[in-house]
Amino acid sequence: MPLYRYEAINERGETEQGMMEVGDEIALYETLRARGWVLVKASRKAVPLMRKKKVTPRALAEFCRHMDHVIRAGIPILQGLEDIMTATTDEFFKGVLLAIIRDIENGKSFSEALEAHPHVFSRFFIAVVRAGETTGQLDKSFHDLAAYLEWTINLKARIKQAITYPIIVIVLIVIALIIFITYVIPKLVKFISEMNMPLPLPTKILIAFEGLFERFWFVPLILFAALLIFFALSKKMERVRYIWDKYKLRLPVLGKLFYELVISRFLRYAEMLYKAGIQIYDMLGITKEVLNNRYVEAQIEAVRDLVMGGESLSSSMSKVGVFPLLIHRSVRVGESTGTLDSIFQELGRQYDEEIDRTLRRVVSMIEPILLIIIGLVMLAIILSVLWPIYTLIGKIG
Questions:
Q1: Is the separation of the CB atoms in 260 and 351 below 8 Å?
Q2: H-helix or E-strand containing 273?
Q3: Residue 143 in 3-state DSSP?
Q4: Superfamily of chain region 161-397
Q5: What's the CA gap between 261 and 155, in Å, rounded?
Q6: CB atoms near residue 339 (< 10 Å)
Q7: 118 — phi, psi (to 5°)?
């Protein structure tokens, strides 16, 4: 739907400005009129093709925290939503909240109003809210959603913090190599070639490399572009994405981290959905759609089929094989004792700790590898450039 920027007069005679995603200007007028507002002017806002409208996880977490407080304090939901809408500075989210208020006033439930905005609220989010409505524990649902969203934010922050230094070093090394190859090497090769003396093997290799680079400088650019195209296709072509998602879990060093992230995400989703009272087969159906790994999603679908066929969750997990032995044994204990939610919570905590250890291990391995690369580059420079120059100076002396 198109996005409109509007200016309206509210019921108190104050000017309100914002943005809303609606079908047309008539729908915008009706939506604002239902709130008691008078539309003054509206303009359709052009949205760049490469930019998707979305609400940040931080904004969603704050929304959930506010809703938790609103419901616990006994404030009517509509009034609480109006207060949140007034306080938010995100114009797009403000329009979404206004549409939710309109839908609730027209008789829809909270979860039904959220379903009209799948680009903002995931199926997982809506399922937890619906379960809270059914059980009369909507405040707890929002509390759990806020905790989950903050966990994802903190996890991303930890990963970014861990990889920032290696990325900076790698970028600096690449820049230095590009400068060395494009500017320094050609001048040094010309100087060394004019010495009219036998050249050592490293210098001959350097001269040959410089000649190849001068003739085929575009090949690295083509390879880099092909790599970008591959990753773009892996997100749009399901078969390519499935293969990539499967084999990236087997990569040396990083594969273990990718695997732990997927399993940790599954455990967090499973804990929240099960605590909300959602049945196992529904929990698996919702979870498999939000893991962002097609291979693991296919394995969870296989688990769901086995559960639908009458098998227990632990037995189904053990037959599929994507889950480690610790998980399906722990799940078996949780099934027999009726503490499956606690098992999911404890396993999630353990995997969080394991992710931290793996991150530290990956970073500790990357740093010496980078030092080795820098050392090899320096050694190559010494052998190929300084060696013949030093030899020439020795002969002159």
A1: yes
A2: helix 254-275
A3: helix
A4: Type II secretion system (T2SS), domain F (1.20.81.30)
A5: 9
A6: 13
A7: -65, -20
User: What digits encode the pLDDT tens for the residues 80-112?
Assistant: 998 998 888 888 888 888 888 888 888 888 998
Complete DSSP assignment for 146-163:
HHHHHHHHHHHHHHHHHH
Q: Can you give the pLDDT at residue 60?
A: 93
For the chain, which ranges sit under pLDDT 50? 47-51
Q: What is the pLDDT of residue 27?
A: 73
**Single-letter code of the amino acid located at 327:** I
* CATH, domain range 57-149: 1.20.81.30
At residue 44, what are phi and psi to the nearest 5 degrees?
A: -75, 130
Tell me whether domains 57-149 and 161-397 share a fold.
yes
Report how far residue 105's alpha carbon sits from residue 97's, in angstroms, rounded to the nearest whole number.
12
What b-and-e string marks burial along 38-48, b requiring 16 or more CB atoms within 10 Å of the CB?
Answer: ebeebeebeee
State pTM to two decimals: 0.69
Q: Is 327 exposed, middle or buried (0-12, 13-18, 19+ CB in 10 A)?
A: buried
> What is the sign, positive or negative, of the torsion defined by CA atoms of 146, 147, 153, 156?
negative
Query: Taking a C-beta distance cutoff of 8 angstroms, is the pair 140, 149 a contact?
Result: no
Residue type at 332 in one-letter notation: R
Do the beta carbons of residue 318 and residue 302 sit within 8 Å? Answer: no
CA distance 190 to 388: 13
Q: Which residues contact 285 (CB under 8 A, 6 or more apart)?
A: 304
Spacing of C-alpha 171 from chain mean position: 22
Domains of the chain by residue range: 3-45, 57-149, 161-397
Going by C-beta distance under 8 Å and a sequence separation of 6 or more, which residues neighbour residue 39? 6, 7, 8, 28, 29, 32, 33
